[in-house]
Amino acid sequence: MEALDFVLLTGQRKALSVSFELVKRLIEMDKWGQTINKAYSSAADLYNQLYLDCPDWQLVERQHFAELVKETGLSMLDVGCGPGRDLAIFSGLGLHPVGTDFSKDMLELAKESSCPLVEADVRKPLPFVDSRFSGVWACSVIPNIPYNEFDGWLVEAYRVLMPGGILFISARNGREGKVVIPYLNDMVTFRACYSLQDIVGGVSCLLDILEADIIKEYPTVIARKRLK
Ligand SMILES: C[S@@+](CC[C@H](N)C(=O)[O-])C[C@H]1O[C@@H](n2cnc3c(N)ncnc32)[C@H](O)[C@@H]1O
Questions:
Q1: pTM over 0.70, yes/no
Q2: Distance between Cα 121 and ligand 1 center (Å)
Q3: Is residue 20 part of a domain?
Q4: What's the pLDDT tens digit per position in 92-117?
Q5: In ligand 1, which atom is closest to the CA atom of 138?
């Protein structure tokens, strides 16, 4: 075999193994997404009943976010909006929320909020133009984003946020992996866990951190997109 043939063959093998790894990763991503989608869809009604009420501390959190968002505008995106409780709350606070979720059953319930809804997998490019929103609200959805996909998700949230806009993230501490949730009919799902430092570390590369705290066991970060 000529030396050049050998180099080409090695290169092709390398390319093949890279694309094999990529396909494997895409299949894993898809499996993770499908399991979570199926889990939330099957538990949508129960989830709605359990979380319909908004405790005072959560209402204060939402009022605070709405005030910050209003400094640049009224449009906001609720990423992983679930059955739409927060859409209704933000609407009532004078914002113009758009909800997005990949569970059709969750979106069906969210119609009650009368807000625009978009079916989308938030781990993929978001179907919105750059700088579309003054606020991006991601409450309890990050635990459904695998740790190694967080940066990609964050870049998309950043892209759709206008300069000066506000990002809210609440997550979970603990151990990443498969979990069974007894209060949701033993729903089987995957959970990714983030410490406050994980989120602050990622977010602070792109946005200014306004607040970072563990609120009722949930690592929570509020940040503002820089004006440039
Ligand atoms: C724990 S619930 C939170 C719902 C709502 N944000 C709340 O705080 O009540 C997580 C929601 O995120 C949605 N979700 C999870 N992964 C998603 C993904 N990759 N793309 C879109 N929605 C997703 C689920 O379908 C579910 O409705």
A1: yes
A2: 9
A3: no
A4: 999 999 999 999 999 999 999 999 99
A5: 6
Cα–Cα distance between 92 and 41 in angstroms, integer? 26
In a domain, 55, yes or no: yes
State the closest ligand 1 atom to the C-alpha of 103, by its place in the atom list counted from 1: 25
The pocket around ligand 1, CB under 6 angstroms, is made up of 33, 36, 40, 51, 80-82, 85-86, 101-103, 106, 121-123, 139-141, 144
State pLDDT tens for residues 145-169. 988 899 999 999 999 999 999 999 9
Burial annotation 40-72 (CB, 10 A radius, 16+ → b, else e)? bbbbbeebbeeeeeeeeebeebbeebbebbbeb
Q: What is the CATH number of the domain that holds 198?
A: 3.40.50.150
Q: Give residue 86 CA to ligand 1 midpoint distance, Å.
A: 12
Token pair listed for 196: 């406050």
> Do residues 161 and 225 touch, judged by C-beta distance below 8 A?
yes
d(CA 196, CA 74): 28
